[in-house]
Each structure stands twice: as C-alpha cells, then as structure tokens.
Amino acid sequence: MLSPGTQAPAFALRCTPDQSVSLSELRGRPVVLAFYPADWSPVCGDQMALYNETLDEFQEFQAELVGISVDGAWCHDAFAKHNKLHFPLLADFEPKGAVARAYGVYDEKDGTCERALFVIDSDGIIHWSYVSPTGVNPGANGILSALEDLKTKSETTAGPK
Amino acid sequence: MRARIPLTLPDPERDHISGSAGGLTRLLEYGDYECPFCAEVQPIVKEIQRRLGDDLLFGFRNFPLTNIHPHSEHAAEAAEAAGTQGNFWAMHDLLFENQEALEDDDLAAYAAKLGLDQTRLIREVIWKIYTPRIREDFKSGVRGGVNGTPTFFINGERYDGPLDLKHLLSALTPQNM
Predict the structure, then answer these.
(1) How far B141 CA sits from the closest chain A CA (Å)?
(2) How far is CA A37 from the centre of its chain?
(3) Which of A30, A81, B83, B111 would staple B116 via disulfide (CB 3.0–4.6 Å)?
(4) pLDDT in tens, B166-177
(5) Which residue among B64, B67, B147 places its CB closest to the CB of A138?
(6) pTM score > 0.80 for this model?
(7) Which ranges of chain A does DSSP label H, i.e. alpha helix?
(8) What architecture (CATH level 2) is domain B16-172?
(9) Total domain count for chain A?
(10) Tens of pLDDT along B20-74?
(11) What is the domain partition of chain B in residue ranges?
(12) What's the domain range around A66?
C-alpha cells in the first residue's frame, strides 16, 4: 500500500450512473478515501453506516469523504439509497480495481478492494494510511486522529502571521 | 471535545450509571435503541448486573445510527428525558423490550406507563433538548474506538469477544480478582 509522503495517484471514477468525481476536484481540502470490499456485505454496511454518522466530525476538518469499491455505479446507487448515505461511493469498476491497484490495496485473490483508509492532505499528498483485516470494521478514530494531526501540522508550518 | 469525558470508562459524574460507584469492575456500553443486537444483549447485561451486584459499575452511552435506524434518535432523547424525570433505566429497559414500537406515540405511552409527565417528555423529545448530550456520547464513542453497536468496554478496554453470558462474565471476572 502507498505510504505517507507519497503523491496520491489521480483518478476519476463514476459515483452515479451519470456523474464522476475526480481527486483533483477535491484538491484544497483533506480527502478521506475509504476502500472497502463490497456493497451489501454486513461489515461494510456497518463501516459506511458509521462514517455516514460521523460526517459532522469529518466536516469539522473540512474533509471530504469518499467510499470506493469495485461495485458498479448502479449497485452503489441502490446501496447508498438503502443506507441513506450522504457521501459519494465511487465505482472502481472499469478497468476493475485500477484505482485500488494504484494505491496498492487490491486483493487479487478475491477480486475486491482491501479494507483500506487513506487521508490525503490539501496538496494531494498521502498523510496517513491504514489497512484493516477484511472482517474488521476499523472505525473512524484513526481517520479523525490523522485529520487532527494534519490540522496541527498545517497550523505549525503556516506559522504566526 | 468540550468536556473531557473518559472515552472508555463510565463516569459517575456524567453518565447514567447503575450498580455501585465503588464497583471494581467497570462496564460501559455504547448502544442504539433500534439496534437489534443491542436489544438481544440486554437480558445478558441484566443477568451480569444481577450476578456481579455491587462489584459492578455499569454505564450506558448513546450511539444511535440515525440514518439506518430512523427511530433511534427520538428513542435516545426519550430515555434522556426520562432520566431528567428520575427514571432513565426503566425507560431504557422499556425501549429495548419494545424495539419494534418506537414512534413518538409509543414513547408517550411508555412515559405514561412509568408515571412520568408525558407531555413534558414528548415536548423535550421533539425540541431535541438532549441532542447535544447524545452527540457528545456519540463522539466519545467514535474517539474511543466504537465501530458498531453494541460496543462494550470492560475497565476501559474494548471487548471484542462473543456477546454471550459465558464469555462476557469471564471477561468481567478474571481469575486474579
């Protein structure tokens, strides 16, 4: 998996059947990428449902959250509606898993994304990354700590005016 | 976070607690009144409380997943509102026992059943008087490592074992105690 300090690989993926999201359009604020194995599997549901409830906390850091799996846009659409998700799910669908591969978190054996988290800073550099065992919901604490750390760092480097 | 809440231990100053404040074993649950797994584990918690008696300090914090459980927020508000009227635990138990009936009318009926001022309770639920407290519970859970419901912390450590009486009891009563 790509480690902190690395430039986050660019991507543009479908989030609905007729809309795309690219990493470059999110530049300027922290971005949280949550790769997960599949829509509809119970643990994923929990993880995305949890993040859906913590959007306010991510918002405090002006961070943008996106979920990514190899499911297609129509599947994401149904899954997001079912769980009333208020953040985009991106379809790493064609070519399958290309973005997950670029980030080093594609599971060749199962043909799905690993359960991996990346926090990318406002300049597009990976600040923090974490892979969780597939069956374990990593929760949101690691993401929030990374965002907090990023905020402290940017305040320190900005220095007194 | 505004107040410095211990994230993984019940705080007798702040939380709804049951048992003895001097209890050596401290159990904290993060739960959601509309979560089926939380309702399932409820009788097990009761049995643990019965067996450990004054050795146990039990605390409950709200962790409602409001998008997938549309009644969870109002139910949490109702439990808090009952708490203000001095009857948190009775409402807490009723909500879990009647998880399939958590409309506002049901909440009012439970308040009446417990002899509480139901008009006041429903007003407080609708006005979301306790939302800041519930959010504070939720945030402390997220920062403490809660990743779903129910999540239990035993003496400050997250318990990831099976949610049955045998395993929970043995985690709560290590040999050296």
Answers:
(1) 9
(2) 12
(3) B111
(4) 999 999 987 654
(5) B147
(6) yes
(7) 42-53, 55-59, 73-82, 98-102, 141-158
(8) 3-Layer(aba) Sandwich (3.40)
(9) 1
(10) 888 889 999 999 999 999 999 999 999 999 999 999 999 999 999 999 999 999 9
(11) 16-172
(12) 30-158
